[in-house]
Amino acid sequence: MSAVLPTELPVDPATKRQLRRGERRAENSAAIRTKKRLTSRGATIAALVIAVLWTIPTFGLFVSSFRPAREVRTTGWWTVFENWGWTLDNYSEALAAGNSQLDLAGAFINSLAITLPATLIPLMIASLAAYAFAWIDFRGKDFLFIGVFALQIVPIQMALVPLLLFFSQGEIFGYPVVESLAAGGYSQVWIAHTMFALPLAIYLLHNFVSEIPSEVIEAARVDGAGHGQIFFRIVLPLTMPAIASIAIFQFLWVWNDLLVALIFADGTVAPMTKLLAELSGSRGQDWHLLTAGAFLSILVPLIVFFALQRFFVRGLLAGSTKG
After folding, report:
1. Which neighbouring-strand residues pair with 98?
2. Domain residue spans in the chain?
């Protein structure tokens, strides 16, 4: 007579329901404990005060963007009900403002063309590198990871001049590279942002990927899955909250960047931040246009943040209920 394994024993439906209730209670209790650890009355009050103090100037900027230029220059935004006047001229002038090569509407398209690839490219490379550092054994892995980690402390300003020489000469160590880099265009900005984003992105994603239970990876290997199947079918779905969190940070960083844009994005490929810096005029006489230009520039980041907000929160809390 063969022995009956415990997994083959019949389970009563009522017992199954009790087990499910027990699992739900455990999950709820873990979530409650995490919420208590992360929140308190004092922290909530402080967060509300900071939010109000941060929002008041932003609200004033928003109100000023709809006021006539004369009212903006002579009265404060809080007198809007005493000095009544609303107009969309600031937005229409801001969109049409710019230089002989580009206006703000065209710069908006350039910002999208720069930001989307400069967010996706480093995320793809960083996720693959994080998997390699976490689950692939190769010679010198630890020293290479330490080198990647150490690159986070290198100031961006130190790399700007070497990169500029590299892009302008079209060669490195005497060997020619892609000619389009020397000719200018979006490729320079994509490469620069990718290089600056990779160290931190690899480090953060490595922490998430390495927390995946080794039993899951080993089971996939026993079933004959290769590194590609393990990465795309197991690692990538499990780390999607972390990837979404890093994507939000990278998107906001590139969209609001001015330093890299001033050096590598010139002429017809300039983003919004570069034109906004020139929008107020040579003597600051048109600063009222900045109120409208600022809100035009934050439309896309707001949409991205609210669209990925649930992934962002899940990425921040990933691992907080472990154990």
Report:
1. 103
2. 97-317
Measured CA distances, 304 to 119, 249, 293, 299 (Å):
12, 10, 19, 9
**Cα–Cα distance for residue pair 111/270, rounded to 1 Å:** 8
Bridging pattern class, strands 171-172 and 175-176: antiparallel
Helix (H, G, I), strand (E, B) or coil at 264: helix
Which residue bears the tokens 């040579």?
Answer: 282
Q: How far apart are the first and last CA of the chain?
A: 40
Residue 180 predicted with pLDDT over 90 = no
Select from 206, 226, 230 the least CA-distant residue to 217.
230
User: What six digits make up the tokens of 279?
Assistant: 């929008």
Q: Classify residue 98 by its DSSP letter.
A: B
Judged by average pLDDT, the poorest of 78-87, 239-248, 306-315 is 306-315
pLDDT digits (tens, 9 = 90+) for 120-137: 999 999 999 999 998 888
Residue 148 has pLDDT above 60, yes or no: yes
Confidence of residue 227 (pLDDT cuts 50, 70, 90): confident
Fold topology of 97-317: MetI-like fold (1.10.3720)
Q: What is the pLDDT of residue 172?
A: 54
